[in-house]
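Researcher: Let's run the pair from yesterday's discussion. Sequence first, then C-alpha cells, for each.
Model: Starting with the first of the pair.
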Amino acid sequence: MELNSNQIQEIIPHRYPFLLVDKITDYKPGEYAKGIKCVTANEMHFMGHFPQLHVMPGVLIIEALEQVGAVAILSEEESKGKTAFFGGIKNARFRQKVVPGDVLTLECEIITRKGPLGIGKAVAKVGDKVAADAELTFAIG
C-alpha cells in the first residue's frame, strides 16, 4: 500500500515546514512503514546548515524516521486521530552525509509494543548505503 503526502497528513499531524516524508511506499498498520524523502536545496534548514556546504541535519533524519514509524503505529484503527510522541532515541548513528539531490529511503519496523508505548527499529538509506539508524520509542497520546 502507498500513501501520498495528503494521505500521510490524514494520519500524522505534521505539516510544512516539518512534514519530512514525501511518500509512504509500503506499510502494514502496527508493524512497519517505508517511505521516501526527496532532499532539495530549497528546504529552510539549508539556509543555516550549512550555507557553504548543505548537509541535512541528523536530527531531521531521525525526525523523518519517527514520522514514518508514526504512520505505522497511527494507521492502526485503534490509534486513528492520536499523536505518536517521541519517548526516546537509542543508539542513533549517522553514517554518511545527506545532501540536496539525495532520495532518503526511510524504514521503521515496530519491534515491541506495550500499552501506549512502542519501539521501532529505524534505518535511513541513500541508495544502498545506510545514512542513519536508531531505535526509536513512541508514546501514543
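Model: Moving on to the second of the pair.
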Amino acid sequence: MKAQAASPDIQAPSREEEQAEVIRRLEEDIIFGRFAPGLRLVEDTLMQRYGASRHFVRQALFQLERQGIVLREKNVGATVRFYSAEEVRQIYEVREMLTRQTALMIGLPVPAHLIEQLSELQRQYCAKADAQDMRGIHETNDAFHLALFSACGNPYLVRSLQDYMNLTLPMRAKNLADSEGLALSRRQHELMIELLKGRDNWALAQLCVDHMQYSKSDYLTRIAGNEARR
C-alpha cells in the first residue's frame, strides 16, 4: 500500500506578499545607502536584481515615491530622491524643533513601565546591532524613539514628528550601518533612559537633538560630491 504524500507545510507567497517583499528590498537598498542619492532606477535592472515582474517593480517605485524616497520625473524616469544640502538643513531644522518641544513636554521622571519598555527595546536594538541585522536595527530604533516621544502626551505632535522621521529616513538609516555611528547611538539611547528617570527636561531635549546630528552630517558629506557636479 502506497504511503500518501505529505502536504507541503510551506505555501507559496501570495501576490501581496511578493509585492511587499519587492518594496521592502528596494526600500532597504535606498535607505541603507546601497543605491546612492540621485541614482537612476532602471526597471529592467531592478527586475533582474529582485527576480520580480515589471508590474511589481513599478508598484514598488510608486509606493516609495509616495514615501518621498524615490523621485519620478518626465523624460528622466525614477531616481533615488536627492536632497540638496539646503533642503537637508531645512528639514532637520523642523525635525529638531519638533524633537525639542516633544522632549520638553515629557513629564519627568517617567513611570517605571516606560523605563522597562525602553530598556527592552534597547536590549533588542543592541541584539540586532550585534547580529548586523540592518532592518531590525532600523525598526527597533524607530520603535524606541516613538515610545519615548509618546510620553509627551500629545499624539498629534508625535505624528508630526514621525512624519519628519520618515522624511529623513534616507538621510539617517545608512548611519545605522556605520560602526562608529551605531556605537554612538547605543550610548545615547542608554543616556536617554537615565535622563528619563530624573527631572532635567532641558538635558533630555538637548540630547535628543544632538542624537540626530551624526546622521545629518554624514548625509551632507555623502552628497557634497554630487552637488559639486550639478
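Researcher: Give me one sentence on the second I can quote.
Model: Residues 15-80 form a domain with the Arc Repressor Mutant, subunit A fold (CATH 1.10.10.10).
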